[in-house]
Design goal:
This is SAC3/GANP/Nin1/mts3/eIF-3 p25 family-domain-containing protein. It comes from Collybia nuda. Belongs to the proteasome subunit S14 family. Keywords: Proteasome. Pfam families: CSN8_PSD8_EIF3K. There is one protein chain. By secondary structure, the chain is mainly α. The chain has a domain of 99 residues: Alpha Horseshoe (Serine Threonine Protein Phosphatase 5, Tetratricopeptide repeat), CATH 1.25.40.990. The chain is 66% helix and 3% strand. Strands 1-3-2 form a three-stranded antiparallel beta sheet. The radius of gyration is 23 Å and the shape is elongated. The termini are far apart.
Length: 265
C-alpha cells in the first residue's frame, strides 16, 4: 500500500471515528485495511528506527481500534489492539510525543482484568505503569479501576454500581456493566440460599435494578418463580448443599447492601 493511500485511509478513519455518532461500521472496514497497510509497511509491530510521523499515525490507528473494539463490545479485539500498542507505549515512549489516549486505554485494560477476575494480573499491570504511586489518585483513568478493585474486595457493590455514572470515559461503562452482571449473579446465588422468597421491590433493590422489567428478565434467566399478583419472587432450591451456607450471615449482608444503597440514593 502506497504511503499516500495509507494516509488517505487514516484521515477517513479519523472522520468516521470523530463523527457524532461514530460510524462504527465504516471504522471497522477502514481498520482492517489500515492494519494490512501497517503490516506491509512494517509498522504494526515496528522495530529499529522509523519515521516519527509514521509511528505517531500507527499508534493513533491502533488506539482508535482499541476504542472501536469496546464500542462494538468486542473484548478479544480490544485485547489484540492493546497488545499491539505495548510496543509504542514502552519501546518508543522516549521517542514519541505523549498520547492523550494512552491512559484511557491503560485504564480500560485494568478494568478488563477485573471483569475477568484476574486480580493478580491487575496488580502486576498496575505496578508496571510509568506512574508514581502518589500520582495514581490524580489520574482519573487509573484511579477509577483502582477504586473499583478496592470496592469489589470490600464487597461495597453499591459503590461499584454508582461508579458507572462517574466513569471518566464512555467506554468504561461497558466494563462496569459487565462487572455488575457478575455481582448480580453472586448476590442472586446468596439470595437463593438465604431466602425462600422476596418481595419484588426488595429483590430489585438488592440486585441494583431500577426497572421491574429488567428484574423480571433476570428472574427468568435464573429460573425464579414470579408472582405478579403477590409481588413476590420465589427461589428454586438447587440441592442439599445450600443448607450448609450460613443463612443469617447472608441475610445480614444482603440487608447491608440495601441500607448502603438507600443512604447513597
Amino acid at each position: 500500500m502506497a504511503p499516500n493511500q495509507l494516509k488517505a485511509l487514516y484521515e477517513d478513519l479519523l472522520r468516521s471515528f470523530n463523527a457524532r455518532p461514530s460510524d462504527l461500521k465504516r471504522c471497522g472496514v477502514l481498520l482492517n485495511q489500515l492494519k494490512m497497510g501497517l503490516i506491509q509497511a512494517g509498522l504494526l509491530v515496528p522495530q529499529g528506527e522509523n519515521n516519527l510521523e509514521d509511528l505517531v499515525i500507527s499508534r493513533d490507528i491502533l488506539e482508535i481500534g482499541a476504542f472501536w473494539s469496546i464500542r462494538t463490545q468486542d473484548v478479544p479485539s480490544f485485547d489484540r489492539y492493546f497488545s499491539q500498542l505495548q510496543t509504542f507505549y514502552t519501546d518508543y515512549s522516549s521517542v514519541l510525543p505523549p498520547s492523550k489516549r494512552e491512559y484511557p486505554i491503560r485504564g480500560l485494560n485494568l478494568i478488563r482484568l477485573l471483569t475477568q477476575n484476574r486480580i493478580a494480573d491487575f496488580h502486576t499491570t498496575l505496578e508496571s505503569l510509568p506512574l508514581r504511586a502518589d500520582a495514581i489518585s490524580d489520574n482519573p483513568y487509573i484511579s477509577h479501576p483502582v477504586n473499583l478493585e478496592r470496592w469489589l474486595m470490600e464487597g461495597s457493590y453499591s459503590k461499584v454500581w454508582n461508579a458507572r455514572e462517574e466513569a471518566p470515559a464512555e467506554e468504561y461503562k461497558f466494563f462496569v456493566d459487565s462487572l455488575m452482571g457478575t455481582i448480580r449473579n453472586e448476590i442472586a446465588s446468596c439470595e437463593e440460599a438465604a431466602y425462600e422468597s422476596l418481595p419484588l421491590k426488595d429483590a430489585a433493590t438488592l440486585l441494583f435494578f431500577t426497572t421491574q422489567s429488567d428484574l423480571l428478565m433476570f428472574a427468568q434467566q435464573r429460573g425464579w418463580e414470579v408472582n405478579l399478583a403477590a409481588s413476590t419472587i420465589s427461589f428454586a432450591r438447587k440441592g442439599e448443599e445450600q443448607m450448609e451456607i450460613p443463612k443469617q450471615k447472608l441475610i445480614a449482608a444482603s440487608l447491608a447492601y440495601a441500607r448502603e444503597l438507600e443512604q447513597i440514593v
